[in-house]
Amino acid sequence: MSLSIETSIKLATGRSIPQLGYGVYQARSKECEDGVKESIKVGYRHVDSAQAYHNEDIVGRAVVQSGLPRSEIFLTTKYMPSHTVHSTESVYDILKKSLKKIDRTGDENPYIDLMLIHAPFGGEQGRKNNWEALVQAQKEGWIKDIGVSNFGVPHLKSLPSPKPVINQIELHPFCQQKEIVNYCKENDIAIQAYSPLIRADENRYKNPVLIELAKKYNKEIPQILIRWSLQKGYIPLPKSTTPSRIKTNADVYDFELSSEDMKSLDGLDEGAKGACTWNPVDQP
Fold first, then answer.
1. What is the domain count for the chain?
2. Which CDD domains does the annotation name (predicted)?
3. Domain that holds residue 44
4. Is the pLDDT of residue 10 over 70?
5. Domain for residue 211, yes or no?
6. Is 118 annotated as a binding residue?
7. What's the confidence (pLDDT) of residue 129?
8. What pTM was estimated for this model as a whole?
9. Does 53 participate in catalysis according to the annotation?
10. Band of the pLDDT at 122, cuts 50, 70, 90?
């Protein structure tokens, strides 16, 4: 399996997304800005933010300061819905606020590469309105691709057309969400993996399978986890604000997990109870 930090995944629309992304969940202020700049320095070309992270503007500023053209950085952010049904027009206005924050290049035609609905809140009508706002923005061209996050199969099935190009869900060997993954694969919906490092859970990192594989490949456990995700065809979003970690998290292209070792990792799945974070895929 030939993978590199330049590897990208082709979306259903024909556009491509860099497979390795840099996550900025809970990263604030200078640590977020420095983290984004460091990630770009070591080769990441994909940054994942969200309205709920309160750092879209910091990400946008860091991209400008990196010195790279805006076209070389893939920027994702997420609209955070509420449990209340909002009109398509009001959601559209909120999306516009993200555009002003995350694309700070000053170009005449700012844009967001990918906008997701962060969670399946609001019931079927709320999700419909939220989705229609994203569809409108995509038609106007200032959002290039649209998708969802934390959506279960029933949520995906009930969305109006077009289909989302991506579903971003918690994914790692202990929480594999196989039903959702299988549905997405069958419907040409790419899969982004958040919390691919299991939040560096100390107890999880003591798992003998992870320890054995780290020793076998002379790699750290986070590198084994990221490589598993890449070989699965997912789009992992590891997060760190430590420069050395940002670098090692991208140093995953000089080895390949064997099919037997991939099966060993697959065997760690604990279903829903394996989730280590907020995982609202069963919302009504």
1. 1
2. AKR_AKR1-5-like
3. 8-201+226-254
4. yes
5. no
6. yes
7. 97
8. 0.95
9. yes
10. very high
